[in-house]
Amino acid sequence: MAGTKHDLEDKDIEDASGSPFMPMFETFRNELDEHHDRRERIIKASRDITAHSKKIIFSLQRVRQLQSPIPSFIAKEVRTRHDSITELFTSVAPDLQGSNGWRYQKQISGGCQEYVEANSFQHYLETQTLITHGEAQSQIPGGIELTVDDYVLGLFDLTGELMRFGITSMATNGTLPRGVSKTGEPEGRDILVDLRLLRTRFEGLDTSSSSSDWSYLKKDIEKKIEVMKQSVEKVENAVYGMIIRGRERPKGWVPDLSGRQERAPEPLESY
């Protein structure tokens, strides 16, 4: 019986190889293999872009002045990371053309958001203004589209970096970072004013039009807004403590970020 079964299986294979449907299914197999290979390439590139973007942010956190050129030793590090990110985007650009740009948008999204965060942080340090969608798009090569969702979510994460920049400056210099004063103004705008303005704009954000299955802005907005509010409140509490107890501040003082009320642990950023 075993030999008979084996013979029948061989006969089935021979019959299948001559089937007119085999070329069609081989085409399907090849398309699926190409899809999975393309998807893995994009995911890997997105993770590498995220890692390089985080290193750009770490380098920029060593800057101590607003509206001033980035120090040369930091600018060199940042430029090297930007070049690596450009190469990564360029390497997957052919995989993200046409309809594939939307098919694999979720896979490249994490890298785009982190790169927007890095670029917007650098843009703010140099100009004390918010980067526009067009300016952020121009930083992404290869014709890869930066969606409005990725742009907005990247700006949400920017508030966390502004909070760290402000707190670090207060701990080291005893002052809140402030820009250059304009004509007719007694002093420049400080970073807390900008954070509060961002909070106001984000709280008034209307995501009712982002209800399609392709949009994840509405799904992520609630968590992002809560984290953003906590970032602004940390800077506010640090400023209050500096003003009230400023004269008693000992050497090496670090702002108290614990706050008056207990909070749930903040969600950790991930790739």
What would you note in describing this structure?
With 271 residues, the chain is mainly alpha-helical. The protein has 9 helices and no strands. It starts with a helix and ends in a 27-residue tail after the last helix. The relative contact order is 0.09. The mean pLDDT is 83.
Please outline what is shown here:
With 271 residues, this protein is mainly alpha-helical. It has 9 helices and no strands.
The pLDDT mean sits at: 83
Q: What's the SSE pattern? A: HHHHHHHHH
Strand content: under 5%
In terms of structural class, how would the helical and strand content be classed? mainly alpha
Query: How many DSSP helices?
Result: 9
From the alpha-carbon coordinates, what is the Rg to the nearest angstrom?
Answer: 26 Å
Specify the helix fraction band. Answer: 55-70%
Task: Give the low-pLDDT segments.
Answer: none
What best-fitting shape do the alpha-carbon axes yield?
elongated
Distance between the termini: 56 Å
Number of strands: 0
For the sheet with most strands, the description reads: none
